[in-house]
Amino acid sequence: MNTRTYFLAGFVAASGALAFAYYLQYAVGLDPCPLCIFQRVAMAGFGLFCLIGLIHAPAGAGHRVYAGLATVCALTGAAIAARHVWLMHLPPDQVPACGPGLNYLIDVMPLTEVLSTVLRGDASCATVKGAFLGISLPAWTCVYFLLLSLGGLAGVFGLGARGVRSS
């Protein structure tokens, strides 16, 4: 697989996931919680680094750098999604109370406090709003991020991409 095909596949995978998330929000009516929004940001970051890699089409170290940055985004998204799944499985008496909305937090707090508050989660994040085959959407998202991470790592180590690994 050449560099452009590799990054095109990553960009299409991220774009498709984001399109599906927006479909669920606007067509189905599943409003995202703050952790869902952060997962979208991680997915957008993955897609952005793949798009830059697609446009730039570097060989060698450049390919590995873009693949590595995309992998960091995917692993960050997987960690956020895993946290989301963990919150969903807490006993009801251990779920954090609902807090203010993300827009309010962004308006009144520094970014580091917003991140800390959102990653703690609240009751809106602990509610299962959608599932497929009995598995929650955040769990599916975690699996998807892990698959994207494997693809990213393949690019970092030059597996299957021509011109990436010199012999």
TrEMBL record:
Q: Where in the cell is it found?
A: Cell inner membrane; Cell membrane
Q: What topology does it adopt in the membrane? A: Multi-pass membrane protein
Q: Mainly localized where? A: membrane
Periplasmic side stretches? 24-41
* Ranges that cross the membrane: 7-25, 37-58, 65-86, 137-161
Segments on the Cytoplasmic face: 1-6, 59-64, 159-167
Listed A to Z, the keywords are: Cell inner membrane, Cell membrane, Chaperone, Disulfide bond, Electron transport, Membrane, Oxidoreductase, Redox-active center, Transmembrane, Transmembrane helix, Transport
Asked whether the UniProt record includes Transmembrane helix among its keywords, one would answer yes
The intrachain disulfides are 33-36
Instruction: State the function annotated in the UniProt record.
Output: Required for disulfide bond formation in some periplasmic proteins. Acts by oxidizing the DsbA protein.
UniProt-listed HAMAP family: DsbB
- Give the family, as the similarity comment puts it: Belongs to the DsbB family.
Q: What name goes with this protein?
A: Disulfide bond formation protein B
Native species:
Salinisphaera aquimarina
